[in-house]
Amino acid sequence: MWDRLMSIDKRVIYLLVAIAIAVPLIKPLGLPLSTSTESETAFNAVDALKPGDILWIGADYGPSSAPELDPMAVAIFRHALKKGVKVVVYAMWQDGVQMSKNWTELVSKEVGAKEGTDWVNLGWKPNNPVTLRQMTDDLWTAAAGVDVNGTPLSNLPLMERVKKLDASSVTLIFDLSTGSPGTADYLQYVSEPKKIPMSVGVTAVSAPGAMPYVKSGQYTGILSGMRGAAEYELLSKAPGSAIKGMDAQSLGHALIILLIILGNIGYVLRKRA
Amino acid sequence: MRKELPLLVTILTGLFVIFGHDFAIGEKWQLINSMDKWQSISQAVALLIGAINLTRIHVNHVRRRKAGYIFSLLLLVCMWGYTVLGVIDGYKGVTFRWVYNALLASLDSTIFSLLAFYIASAAYRAFRVRTVEASLLLVSAAIVMLGRAPIGEAIWKGFPDWANWIMRFPNTAAMRAVLIGAYLGSFVTVLRILLGIERAHLGGVGGAGMK
Fold this sequence. Notes:
The structure holds two protein chains of two kinds.
Chain A: H1 2-6, H2 10-26, H3 37-47, E1 54-60, H4 66-82, E2 86-91, H5 94-111, E3 119-124, H6 130-142, E4 172-177, H7 183-194, E5 198-202, H8 207-215, E6 222-224, H9 225-235, H10 241-272
Parallel strand pairs in A: 1-2, 1-4, 2-3, 4-5, 5-6
Helix pairs in contact in A: 2-10, 3-9, 4-5, 4-9, 9-10
Chain B: H1 4-22, H2 24-28, H3 31-63, H4 69-89, H5 94-126, H6 132-147, H7 150-155, H8 158-168, H9 170-194
Helix pairs in contact in B: 3-4, 6-8, 8-9
């Protein structure tokens, strides 16, 4: 009998997971959400920027991480533009171009920000992180002189202030990353040598690897996974898809724990028998 | 010379990089900038070689009607079709973006979302209180999972604090140990390559005993 608890058919598990995730997405439960110190620190770093300061957002991810990192990008980009902060977006991942194009266009339309003056999307350039490092010497040359749309940087007023990726032009880097190239490259080639403060947003699986850099103070806060995105949405008082997704994550986690408990009850009782 | 020349190139390149990065004179001569340019060119050439090689292999599969040749055909159509579309349409192109958002993004997300099902099934089968270490792992995982989702907070207010403590201290300590170990390993490997002891990259099996 105890064996049954240990050998639930995987199709049953799959069905339960599908229900646990789909139901809260259709009918949200509205579970309470608090914020962590790490997310608050990352939020405060953006919130402390003054109108006219330049925020550099790295879009180093693809569609597989979009449910976790897109809500962060939307919330940070919206927060910055509403404060009058200028934003430069750059992707070290080819996929990051399409990802960033989607949220830059969506948010800038909503906020009424003007491309070229309030924000610029440099798109993806080949050979990263070498190109990223070259940007610290001469951004215009490293970016081949054009933005994501092929518009010459000389035609974009904001870029007149960003000739180099250094502390004289960029006040804060916020890298949204899911692997390599990503946060570690920004830290090694830009943030540390050029003394630019840096915050990061990473997928939940990448968070344990990034935590030592948060503790050492090299990352000014961290947004970790969908929870981090939801916390940023909460702090910026702009609920979005991450907060909606938290209920689904809750039931998903609860189901996995329940299954683990059932499996272990079966294991212990069979061992005793 | 077939072995010595590549070995010499490797050693000189390695020394050049170290000299450029870590010595003031290397910085003054801007050696890093030259290396960056070389790397950019090398990568572009490698990409071209990769594309040509992939095309050659899969064209052969199609020509010889090898098993699964239809997938080779699909690969060629997708690879070159999307490249041509990108060149004609550009990033701004409606069709180019539609293909990405409607096909690539959806397929990528779908594959990744399958992980939720596999992880649930794998966690159920693998997490057993067989040993003290396994039990500790299980308890930590449960606390972090509950602490990272609002349901944990709804059950007990202390779960997020416990989860954050696990992430900040035991996790950070372990990750630091892993990182330091990995960097020491990299350093040793670099030394072995620079001293010509490690030769696996030349096509052999490597190791000190290799002739």
